[in-house]
Amino acid sequence: MTTGSYPEPGPAAALDGNAVGGLLIELFGTEMTAALGTCATCGARRPLAETAVYLRAPGAVMRCRSCQSLLIVVARVRALNCVDLTGLAALDAPAGRAVPA
Ligand SMILES: [Zn+2]
Fold first, then answer.
1. pLDDT value of position 9
2. Could you tell me if residue 26 is inside a domain?
3. How many domains does the chain have?
4. Half-sphere exposure of 1 (CA within 13 A, CB side)
5. How confident is the model at residue 59 (pLDDT cuts 50, 70, 90)?
6. How far apart are alpha carbons 97 and 87 in whole angstroms?
7. How far is the CA of 73 from the centre of ligand 1 (A)?
8. Residue 78 Cα, ligand 1 centroid: separation in angstroms?
9. Alpha helices in the chain (DSSP H)
10. Is 82 helix (H, G, I), strand (E, B) or coil?
11. Quick check: pTM over 0.90?
């Protein structure tokens, strides 16, 4: 998904990753806001709770707080969630927990 229709970054409209905590549980089957995401663009590594989240799109967009690159895009198409994780170089579970495959 590389259309240009994603919301532009802007601090006023951004929520934090806790706003999509329920959606992340739906997608991954476990609590993921404490999981560490590594930005594929700038290498910043921080909990998903600290991402910049935009919900104005038909779905959810999570951007890097450091460089504003797209990290995770979730679009709901009919009953399916389409998830783009290509903005993440890595996604690591909090210590002691595994990220489900
Ligand atoms: Zn970044």
1. 56
2. yes
3. 1
4. 21
5. confident
6. 22
7. 15
8. 31
9. 21-28
10. strand
11. no
